[in-house]
Design goal:
Blueprint: H1 4-24, E1 43-50, E2 53-60, H2 67-80, E3 96-103, E4 107-108, H3 117-120, E5 126-132, E6 135-139, H4 141-146, H5 151-162, E7 175-184
Antiparallel strand pairs: 1-2, 1-3, 3-7, 4-7, 5-6, 5-7
Amino acid sequence: MISDRAGEYLVKIAKESIKHFLKTGTQLEKPTDYPIELDEELGVFVTLTKNNELRGCIGYAEPIKPAIDAAMEMALAAALDDPRFPQVSESEFEDLDFEVTVLTKPEMIVVGHYNQYFDEIEIGRDGLIIQKGYARGLLLPQVAVENAFTKEDFLDHTCMKAGISADSWMDESCDVFKFQGQIFK
């Protein structure tokens, strides 16, 4: 998908975006010297951790903006707008670890029976999106690994992230998508 150099740049710009905002209250201006490949529209998630605990994670699952713009925007969203956490403070900034995950375009998994999902999902490679009506949940590929999820656990937890019952993935009215991610720290 993107080069290591470009991925490392996304981590750097995510960090700089948050630092600049915490100091000035304004958004960092988009640099002009970034790797040109970051003009490609890609799904991007920014994850913040503090002491190995999640501190914020927000992103675009779909490739709707250039990666450089998505990383800058989602960095601020992860720091300031994740409803699960208070806003990141300037005093805790140095204690944060930054991760940017660049996503492939999600593809729907089409199965004849829900048991076939187990053949289509690979833990450590795939992330999941589960959608039922207006409810939608996403878990990045690394979530399954970090939590030692089985494939069924992964499907269940993605449903719960969507705010629907854990076994909703077994329902024909539920759509399951997979995607892959490149992780940069």
